[in-house]
Specification:
heterotrimer; B: 192 residues; alpha+beta; Arc Repressor Mutant, subunit A; Glutaredoxin; 2 domains; C: 536 residues; Ubiquitin-like (UB roll); Alpha-Beta Plaits; Rossmann fold; eight-stranded mixed sheet; 13 helices; 20% strand; elongated
Amino acid sequence: MAFPHRHDLETTTLLSRHMGEEEARHLDTWLERGGYEGLRKALTMEPEEIVQVVKDSGLRGRGGAGFPTGMKWSFMPGADDDRPHYLCCNADESEPGAFKDREVLRWSPHLLIEGCMIAARAIRARHAYIYIRGEFFPVLPILNRAVSDAYREGYLGEGIMGSGWSCDLTVHVGAGAYIAGEETGLMASLEGRRAEPRVKPPFPAQVGIFGQPTTVNNVETLAAVPMILTNGAEWYRQWGTEKSPGTKLWCCSGHLNRPGNYEMALGVPLKDILFDVCGGIPEGRAVRAVIPGGSSTAYLTPDELDCETTYEGLKEAGSSLGTASPIVMDESTCLLRATRRIAQFYAHESCGQCVQCREGTEWVTEILTRIEHGDGRMEDIDTLYDLCEQLTGRTICVLADSVVFPLKSSLDKFRDEYEAHILRDTCTAT
Amino acid sequence: MSEELHPSVAGAQPYMREERQGSGTTDEPLFESDEGRERLEKIRSRYPSARPALLPLLNYAQEKNGWVSTRAMEEIAGALDLTPACVHSVATFYTMYNKRPVGRYLIQVCTNISCHLNRGDDVLERFLEETGTRPGETSENGLFTVVEAECLGACGFATVVQINEDYVENVTPEKVPDIVDALWARAEGRDA
Amino acid sequence: MSEQSGSQEAVTLIIDDVEVTVPTGTKVLDAAERAGVVVPHYCYHPGIPTRPAQCRVCLVSVEGQGKLQPSCVLDAQQDMVVHTATEEAKLARKSVIEFLLVNHPLDCPICDAAGQCMLQDYAFETGQLESRVEEPKLVMGRDRIADDVLYFADRCIICTRCVRFMREVARDDALIVAQRGHRAYIDTFPGTELDNPFHGNIVDVCPVGALVHEDFLFKARFWDMDSASSICPGCSNGCNVSVASKENQVVRLKPRHNAAVNSYWMCDHGRGQLVMANRGIRAEVPLLRDEDGELRPADWKDALDRVASDLSELGGGGRAVVSPHACNESLHQLRRLLELLGFQGGEFRVEQGGEATLDGFPKLKLRADRAPNATGAELLGFERVESLAEPGPGEVLVVLGERLDADPTLPDAAFGEHAGYVLYLGTRITEAARRADAILPVTSSAEMQGTFTNWEGRVQRFDQALREAGIARPAWMVLSRLVGLLGGEGATRLEAADAFDAMAADTSGMEGMDWLSLGLKGLPLASPADVAGGAS
């Protein structure tokens, strides 16, 4: 498997610099490429100083919510709290459309390990866990070897890099549950329980895994940390915008000539990523819709694609940056079917605690399936709108809301599709 | 990979390091061998209490036997001082644990949105046709179990199919017969 | 509700226009209850420690907060203004009910829970008549969870009360949620069933008809049942129960909350006691031995006059064998009768059995003494024995409730043959009773009011659940009349309240107690020292 995304278009390669290089996976060759310099520097710094640098960099969580990373770290109790602290790296990448963390894991495992150790030092953790989704088998031998080598060579474990500071790292593998990617669901799963999210408060920084203060960070977030430590916050801010600094791995899929993973400075127009970097739609067909941030974000129509790819820009466009995973649908796509498929996924992944989510996601799926099969009625549209309302903001976590964004936007923007199926049993796709 | 399995990754081994023989599944005791006991201890050493070792041990059961039997659940419950019911609850939550034996080749076809847009449903249909099975059912010769999978996290390479632990990417319906033929050949080659 | 008794701080908030002050840390749902506002809920149960906030029925509006909040886990805060019935909250609640009914079989006509089902109640309250659901229902069927408990998965709302009762209160992690999402159901480990001495409580905590006792299945409609507050007679723990009856038969015992005794729970041995309450062949009229030695029926007046006159002619003193199932009031009147006759002794035996503790509420224990009133019997001057002393020649033997033939090893069939006179007060005509000179039919504890004193000296009242058999009367009533006829002080006690107050005035440890203050939760004896070593 070669990294297929090298081309002459304007991408920025900070995180992805060594993706595609087999040899960069190994510790010695990684060190030749400047590996572990960020950690070396962090080991000379106090935790608060590390937090401050990351705060100054403006780095925001890359798992979907976009919460400022430095601020999240600062929620952890300080030196006066003698409970064990933990770091969890969320590598349960499972949002449909997203496949960026896998690339970090399989091409640059030491980058992640280094990021984990810097974060662990910043939050005073002595043990970090990488929770990796169970399906990522091909990644495991690569990551496991990197971790074992890092232990052997003193980049993990006792007295890291000759310092007096020690920290463990354990790779923990999941077993097929989207909801284990939710922060509290992940913690439950790591504790050997069903990955059922829980009510916050208490927040993980107070009560996390094993009941102890915990920070959960996404793979891509942690992978961005070493270069920020090495080069400084200002350096990092040369990419991106004031509120959305840095670069982002974009996972582009669906109907594209060059689907794949591209690192871009935040802020470039979405259409440039899709049409220039990814080469547009195959066979010259027109775009019908784009889901910009993974399947839990709202559809954009073709005339909404010049929005700026920042957290704010996509919000302004009525959607969300999410995991930066645009799913492109060309004019041959039946949006009812596509929406049904998305709803079906969330129904399958509902943990089943909250009533709305357990029953509602499935009910929505059944209604959409029925319309798809030609048995729809116009009242179904009202019912679906109403269900969108009842599935929003009512539950412990946001899985139910995740159905609403694509569903409601499809009803708003592609009502003609629903009406064609209901009234004429035909599809508006070409 | 280094000879000695480092405890930090002892709970993170791929399921099928070697290709299975015959129908692909067994129901061997997990912790009666030195290897099993060592794995148990290494995994347990990474957590402050027993229960967090549950998923890694269920993974180990599947790595060893190809599925997670109720017998294995009881054995794991005993090793972690949990009730078998509690293990059952966790095992049924996670979709990757095969609660029934599966064929030597477990073929998981993603039909989630990006694969759906790239004919994932047709790929699934084609695999079912070529193996002569229905979803989740194991073929009579014990070789194939085809299931519909949710997103496998490789959406830029749709349609994605996972065969045992290997990802096969950019699969089209047209490629399916060759893939199945290759699996046949592998199976026959091994058996011969 | 708050456990933090040491907390000095309190917060004042407004819930549905009612100002209420509660200790810091109180949840809004509990604060609302104090304000007289009931917030609907499924997953919250006051006796189960965790609050997963997953049923989402208790969502309320809080001023200043955009989203509805789950009141069961929301801390009450100073100056918080809560509205439990805004349009938004009502709509959210209504939608939860609609969601719960998506796959519900709507089999209320054959559901045991109909009439006391929280799903039915809330569906009724939200007033939605039509369902918008056109989809076929997911059918999951029914399963056996324990030898006496069935699970109707289609009715289940996955509130997990049962699972959490087993895990957190019974401390037996044997009941779990299997699968996930809308395919989730309650299950045991494959091939096993629940086998816990307390597992029957899962039926009580189930807010719908998903978990049912097999021996109650299809037996009675809720609205056809009568209910009485009572005390479980199964052991000396004295669990507070409600006795449900239909057509004068006990159909079900359910625990009744008492924080000092059994919380919300009871054991399964106790539930089985209903069989004992249902009458078999009963003593229904007084029987007196005539000149030919035959037992002949008599009315109460004749019977008591005759017994009183027989007793007054005997001078050998009186001795009694009593049952620890007899209530305090009856034992007190019997003790008075024996004193009038010249007290020679009073004994009782207590059936013994294995013990089991409810770990999440250890005060609730199935205790070795399989009778409700051994402590009371001792306090009232009766002696606990392993084997009964044979009455001496010429003594009057009064038997109260003790079957005498229930245990084939003790005593032998001729027990009491040397007695000068045998007076038998019981609910059944046993072999031993047939040798008596007089049989006076008394009511069972299900058919009367009275009190028991539990293992730790808590005196608790039970009420009448069933009509008496024939013309049987409470033993305290019968015995107090006999006492009067034999010249003792005090009127015939026609009310349990009078019998109790007379006993309290006369009994060390019960000073100051009266029926009024006893209420339905009971009172502890004045000094634990008064409870003799019989507690176990």
